[in-house]
Amino acid sequence: MAHVDHFxxxxxSPVIAYVMACVGAALGLHCTMKALASDGRSRRxxxxxxxxxxxxxIWTMHFIAMLGFGVDGTPIRxxxxxxxxxxxxxxxxxxxxxxxxxxxxxxxxxxxxxGLGTGLGVGAMHYLGMAALxxxxxxxxxxxxxxxxxxxxxxxxxxALWAAVVVRxxxxxxxxxxxxxxxVSSMHYTGMSAVQIxxxxxxxxxxxxxxxxFIFPLAVVLGSFLFLSSAFVALSPTERExxxxxxxxxxxxxxxxxxxxxxxxxxxxxxxxxxxxxSRH
Length: 281
Prior knowledge:
Layout (H helix, E strand, L loop, with lengths): L3 E2 L6 H25 L3 H26 L4 E2 L5 E2 L1 H24 L3 H25 L1 E2 L2 E5 L1 H24 L3 H24 L1 E5 L11 H25 L3 H25 L18
């Protein structure tokens, strides 16, 4: 078996990877909460944004962590179509779980089904991304650790969606995103610890792109998207909040007029000089 190094870039790559997982989770959970407070097209749009945020955050976390991955005796390349497919799969499967929570009639059933779908989406993205690896050797996995990594992903996704539904306020969503980021990172390194690579004697050129040629620029783009979207979502009211604000604004002039009428001093009319004085008759 070849020696595998998961921290070739030191602690920088796992720390940045964890931060990106937290940012994606925080944005996705905030969008999910806004979706649950909205109706119609607005709810659908918030759920789509949540799917893209969580999926791209998980994908960015995985491949930033992979910048520290190395195998003795072989270079590493990535199959570009498979790498892009892993991103789309992450968004699609996570989206299925998020939409289940957003439109489910039974809260607990929706959480269980949504958490299962989202967790399996995390796992599908991870192992599909690993299938994109091109190196001189064969890649095998320790099955118990693979099962454990999937269990961590499902448990983390279910807990995060529960927090989005039950916990109210930004503090709860922030705490849930930190927990989900930690769980996604744990799932990644648990899955990576299951990797076994058997080197092959052939040393020809490998197809695909290096991490710095393809993955790093794409991760920077997705990371920028997540940070900018987080700021936009934080400042965007839901449909109900906008309606309540409009009602309050419309009612404010009426309230001022009523207050002015209530505090006005009543005017006493002057005596009518045209009324005859009957006391003279």
